[in-house]
């Protein structure tokens, strides 16, 4: 059901960089091309930031990215899947088509299609997406906004159901169990 | 039902594992007996899970039936079951755990007060329940006016300071569209523990014992409830055997 990461932990690297574009470089600058030898290079593999890599700045791209290092700044992958690995620590607002979190994230998650919070995830920030899945064991703190944006006719409000509703003071049901209103509560 | 069972995962104040046990099927009452396992060092106490039939929820959903794509504000923790339930019915759901936010706000206020050495009269004025409630609402529940069709208030009001409850209901009223529906609960006596709620199916709520964030602040009488929700035109209550009043308000 969920995408498996092709990018596995690489040799520890530490770089400090400005904006990084994964379409042109899998998060490593020319000076670090030595380490690129261990980064998956096939068209089917996912670009990855290994544990030990530290990036401060903005990361943008249009291909999938697997982050298992430390990122601070902003991450934008509008048409791609962004995976935050179990070793990752991300302090950034993340914007992607699909976001999978298995590590630690502090920031807003904006997934246009889907956000998945894995069982090992620790998220502190608001989440917005059409679909949200939270696995057993995930730790989360923040607001959640899920579902498609409403697009209904203006007159289709719930008010139409209450045209015949009685004024509040005249409601005879107040504090009286309505017929069949007994609730099967806990004994 | 089976699908929801698989997604019976909760989040918010606790780890998601707290709500990970399967639902109780069609049984009216189910005592959860599985232990609660949490990630990290702050392991919450074991929670008990029960289900309760809910005529209030049934009525709430009936009122929203046919709405099409609506918007729902849930003032409890974000539970996977509740999210899935309403998203599948075309709603856009916003979960905002207001008690958690209030708890955090109070903790920050206390820390600020302790850090301040010379307390002035102005500082005291800033710490009255009313001014504190105003400050809290200036930072929270900031959504566009008339942006929600429905509101799940649960039993939040019982746990808030009365001054905050009054101001918050005023703000929530503004957030609802005309005809918007509120589903709230009121305890008839101060509850011993603290509970969270999530939707299991169209007539059933899951009730989860949770770590107490606040003790209940007040037991509201009917007249007080009517006064609080004075801008709503209809109110309908269902009283359960457990003395929990489920109440629907219609703007």
Structure description:
The complex is a heterodimer of chains A (187) and B (251). Chain A has strands spanning 20-21, 47-49, 54-60, 65-67, 70-84, 89-101, 104-106, 109-117, 122-124, 127-134, 139-141, 144-146. Chain A has 187 residues and is mainly beta. Chain A has a domain at 20-146. In chain A, strands 1, 2, 3, 4, 5, 6, 7, 8, 9, 10, 11 and 12 form a 12-stranded parallel sheet that branches. Chain A is globular, with a radius of gyration of 23 Å. The two termini of chain A are 40 Å apart. Chain B has 251 residues and is α/β, with parallel strands linked by helices. Chain B has a single domain, classed as Rossmann fold, CATH 3.40.50. Chain B has a 6-stranded mixed sheet. In chain B, strands 1-7-6 form a 3-stranded antiparallel sheet. In chain B, α6 (129-139) runs parallel beside α8. At the A-B interface, β10, β11 and β12 of A face β1, α2, α3, β3 and β5 of B. β12 (144-146) of chain A pairs antiparallel with β3 of chain B, so a sheet runs across the interface.
CATH class of chain B: Alpha Beta
Outline of chain B: globular
Oligomeric status: heterodimer
Query: How many β-strands of chain A, per DSSP?
Result: 12
Sketch the topology of chain B as an H/E string, one letter per element. HEHEHEHHHEHHEEEHEE
Largest sheet of chain A: 12 strands, parallel
Structural Rg of chain A: 23 Å
Mean pLDDT of chain A, to the nearest integer, reads 70
Overall form of chain A: globular
Structural class of chain B: alpha/beta
Side-by-side strand order of the widest sheet of chain B: 3-2-4-5-9-8
Q: Biggest interface and which pair forms it?
A: A-B, 53 and 70 residues
Question: Which features would summarize this protein structure in a list?
Answer:
heterodimer, A: 187 residues, mainly beta, twelve-stranded parallel sheet, disordered C terminus, B: alpha/beta, Rossmann fold, three-stranded antiparallel sheet
